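Tokens in:
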């Protein structure tokens, strides 16, 4: 089941993010760290009603944020559709114990279906340039790579921006 996250689940969400960060670091992917994602980031996501959790046997095993807010870092990108009618995916995660079982696909299907159902023109996101697995994941789903942005607190390496026209 995928549903809105609750503030009472913040500890479980943080533990999931920490487990994902540890696995990425073990694979030499320095994308998530002590600066990102933070508890306050997840709380803001919940208050905006944008954070969804994937539950499996009553355990939170995944997250995805579906937002309509365009971060300022995205402004220079030459998007495929005009600004103002897109959703933005952030903090997609699946607990390492459940990766490779289709749960990330399920979360992205949910996000894309939500976007289509609500009349958005496209889905936009970014992924770390050093995370080849994520790039392949999005490209196989039909996302087009458009340009790079930087998050200096996360890495000196760029993040690739992608868009899927619905």
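Residues out:
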């Amino acid at each position: 089941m995928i549903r809105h996250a609750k503030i009472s689940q913040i500890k479980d969400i943080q533990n999931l993010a920490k487990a994902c960060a540890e696995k990425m670091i073990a694979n030499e992917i320095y994308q998530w760290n002590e600066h990102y994602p933070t508890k306050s980031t997840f709380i803001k996501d919940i208050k905006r009603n944008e954070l969804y959790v994937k539950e499996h046997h009553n355990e939170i095993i995944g997250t995805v944020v579906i937002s309509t807010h365009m971060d300022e870092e995205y402004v220079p990108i030459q998007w495929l559709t005009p600004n103002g009618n897109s959703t933005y995916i952030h903090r997609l995660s699946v607990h390492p114990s459940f990766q490779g079982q289709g749960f990330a696909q399920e979360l992205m299907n949910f996000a894309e279906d939500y976007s289509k159902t609500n009349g958005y023109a496209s889905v936009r996101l970014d992924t770390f340039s050093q995370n080849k697995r994520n790039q392949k994941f999005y490209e196989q789903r039909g996302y087009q790579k458009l340009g790079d942005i930087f998050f200096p607190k996360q890495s000196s390496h760029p993040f690739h921006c992608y868009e899927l026209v619905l």
